[in-house]
Amino acid sequence: MPKFGKTAKILIGLLAGIAFGLFFGESCSILQPFSDAFIKILQITVLPFIAINLIFGLGNMRGEEARTIVIKGGAILLLFWAFSAITVAIMRLALPNLARASFFATTEPTQAAGFSLIEILIPYNPFHSLAEGLLPSIVVFCLLLGFAMIGIKKKKVLMSSLNILSLALAKMSSSIQSIIPIGIFVVVANTTGTLTMDRLLELQVFLITSVGFCMLLAFFALPLLISSVTPFSYRELLSMSSGAVILGATTANDFITLPLIMKGVQYLFHSKEKMSASPKR
Fold it and tell me: Would you say residue 107 has pLDDT above 70?
């Protein structure tokens, strides 16, 4: 039997889901509960994985390393924020300026829920942020705690415990990620089977514009931008991120792709370390 990589399995699940949905049509609506369950399962380890690894990684650093990360990492982060803002502005200009939402949807526009930037960014109650899944405030809290632990001498026991938790969560996340091809098959089959032709025609301008911009960003602009500020090549970045890109595109949920991205980044750094440590002939 041929051995397929993770990205190849995800692509097989995607194509099989499209074929299944087109063949069985509305009957695929029975897959909706399984599709929702798949999204929830992938979210199990995301927040603990991010929080523990941020605290563990920053807490083990020295002061000089932390300052370097703040300066260089902050500059790169500002670059990506500016790039993202420009991209969103260009995508907005590509869509027609209509007062009603009927061009993209059959329902009338509704009033958006309240948005509080302070609540999202400031972790005034870290437990509330964890319960509500407010990722920006969780990251801010973990960064503050991680930087505060730099220079504390009596932290070996805590760092050892965090390392064990990180390894356990990584193992748990790897086990959960093994069902991604099956989950993508279920999600895509349900979406393809329940999407009517009228609905597709209503969304065609939005879909074509969004898919075009997302493909341009995912496969050209962002890998080239990242390769220009990191030691990784365009091919390495594309190979690492392709699975996460397909997962996020098919599920419309970028939150669940974070463990997959973090695992890919760790793999890239470990590969570079092995290459630099191997003797040159």
Answer: no
Enter the DSSP assignment of 280.
P
Please say whether the beta carbons of 105 and 202 come within 8 A. yes
Q: Which of 70, 227, 213 is nearest to 147 (CA)?
A: 70
Other Cβ atoms within 10 Å of 233 Cβ, number: 12
- Note the pLDDT of residue 108: 53
Q: What is the mean pLDDT of residues 270-280?
A: 72
How far apart are the C-alpha atoms of 58 and 62, rounded to whole Å? Answer: 9
- Buried residues in 97-119 as b, exposed as e (16+ CB within 10 A): eeeeeeebeeeeeeeeeeeeeeb
Residue 123 and residue 141 in contact, taking contact as beta carbons nearer than 8 Å: yes
Q: What is the rounded CA–CA span in Å between residue 137 and residue 199?
A: 37
pLDDT digits (tens, 9 = 90+) for 128-138: 888 888 888 88
CB 140 within 8 A of CB 27: no
This prediction's pTM? 0.71
Q: How many CB atoms lie within 10 A of CB 141?
A: 21
Q: Residue 20: which of 183, 249, 190, 182 has the closest Cα?
A: 190
Q: How far apart are CA 234 and CA 239, in angstroms?
A: 9
DSSP state letter for 2 = -
CA neighbor of 137 nearest in space, from 125, 148, 147, 149: 125
Displacement of CA 96 from its chain's centroid (Å): 29
Distance CA 263, CA 53 (A): 12
Residue 104 has pLDDT above 50, yes or no: no
pLDDT tens digit sequence for 189-242:
888 888 776 666 666 667 777 777 778 888 888 888 888 888 888 888 888 888
